[in-house]
Specification:
The protein has 201 residues and is of the alpha+beta class. Helices cover 30% and strands 38% of the residues.
Length: 201
Amino acid sequence: MSDTFKTIKSVSEAVYTEKRSKFIAMAFPVSTVDEIKETLLACQKKYYDARHVCYAYMLGAEREVFRANDNGEPSGTAGRPILGQINSKELTDVLVVVVRYFGGIKLGTGGLIVAYKTAAAAALDNAEVIEKTVDCRVSFSLEYPFLNDVMRIVKSENARIVGQYYDTDYYMTLEIGKAHMDMLKDKLSKVETLKITDNED
């Protein structure tokens, strides 16, 4: 499992024209299916007069959640070529929408595949690709006198404190890149009185 994944920084667009058909391609950074649904709804409202609003998306660091939609185009001529471009650039957490305004001349299945692929590729080429870290969290409690031991580990491992409070014991949640989690836990396990209360692997 890699500790990083590639996505896009912000929305990007491109326009492709073929035999008077106009293809408007947009790439969006997304992180949830709900976010995708909202974005698609906004695109359908904005381009209400378009013949087709086709799309594909990929979600998650493992790139296991994906979908392609032809929105009325012949099966496999729109959504799959769009998804193919997301895959070829090894991106995730991205939604690509391609809106088609029909120009009166049929493109045929081969022509449609090329047009949707080209439009999607152009929108992704215009996007700034960034690398993100796959982060995990660990929560634990310990007796206050041993807090300095934990702080030394936090500093040496470059972990981020995302939550802490003091009751009878001291409670803390740390976040770190997935690849470094085992080492962090190993060091924490050596701190006296420390008990791990929650893991988010």
